[in-house]
Amino acid sequence: MAASAARERSSSAGLLSIGQVLARLTPEFPDLTSSKLRFLEVQGIVTPSRTESGYRKFSASDIERLRVGLTLQRDHYLPLSVIREQLDAAGSEASSIVAPPSIAPAPRRYRRDELLTAAGAGPQILNDAISTGVITAQETYPEATVVLLRGLVALDRHGIEPRHLRSLRQGAEREVALIESALSPMLRRTDAASRARASELAPELAGKIDEVRALFVKDAIARLLS
User: Fold this and answer.
1) What's the pLDDT tens digit per position in 34-76?
2) CB under 8 Å to 212, separation ≥6 — which residues?
3) Which structural domain range is residue 197 located in?
4) CA 48, CA 56: separation in Å to the nearest integer?
5) pLDDT > 90? residue 30
6) Which of 48, 50, 150, 176 has a CA-to-CA distance to 128 between 20 and 30 Å?
7) Among 142, 116, 117, which residue's Cα sits nearest to residue 129?
């Protein structure tokens, strides 16, 4: 067992795990998740190597293919099949792909000062949200962060501070882990059909969890006011 572990460490030298890939790419692509990474693998955008234990490991060229592919998808709305063909044709020179003119404006990104203005927030509440992990610090922020920060401002008026909401963020992460566990039989398979089905089921399960949570909250509020 020790020898096997040593071989895996040696073969994985210089390669990145899914978590490390997410840490590197999510500042530029905030919507990227482990589930989406697996879906992109099914679609042939990237083909990570595997350790003897089955863990995915991503090389520098894998990261570049992901970065280019995600950029083409986000900014130019190209189908994944077209993106895969372009990446395969470019080979190791994925970064040389010339993107077509965008058919629609890229999603708005906000600098820190623009985010504060759009959300009607002061600097301190954003600092608090970042320090407590409710918002992840980035060079620019997507529209979703504007909506989130507006919500934090509204809650702050009633004495609910970002630090009070940290458990909500942690709860969301636990829910994702629950969904991943439920879908693990599909995620362990390598066929495209299983992966595609898992990608369809994940948001459905998340929606059901939202419904159950909303009912729990509604019931608790009813008891509070009774």
Assistant:
1) 888 888 998 889 999 988 888 899 999 999 999 999 988 887 7
2) none
3) 186-226
4) 6
5) no
6) 176
7) 116
Does this model's pTM top 0.70? My answer is no
Secondary structure of the chain in the HEC alphabet? CHHHHHHHHHHCCCCECHHHHHHHHCCCCCCCCHHHHHHHHHCCCCCCEECCCCCEEECHHHHHHHHHHHHHHHHHCCCHHHHHHHHHHHCCCHHHCCCCCCCCCCCCCECHHHHHHHHCCCHHHHHHHHHCCCCCCCCCECHHHHHHHHHHHHHHCCCCCHHHHHHHHHHHHHHHHHHHHHCHHHHCCCCHHHHHHHHHHHHHHHHHHHHHHHHHHHHHHHHHHC
Q: Which of 105, 134, 166 is the last residue of a domain?
A: 105
Residue 72, token pair as written in the block: 């083409």
Residues 74, 119, single domain; the answer is no
How would you label 81-96 residue by residue, b for 16+ Cβ within 10 Å and e otherwise?
A: eebbebbeebeeebee
What is d(CA 99, CA 178) in angstroms, rounded to the nearest whole number?
A: 38
Q: Are residues 97 and 10 in the same domain?
A: yes
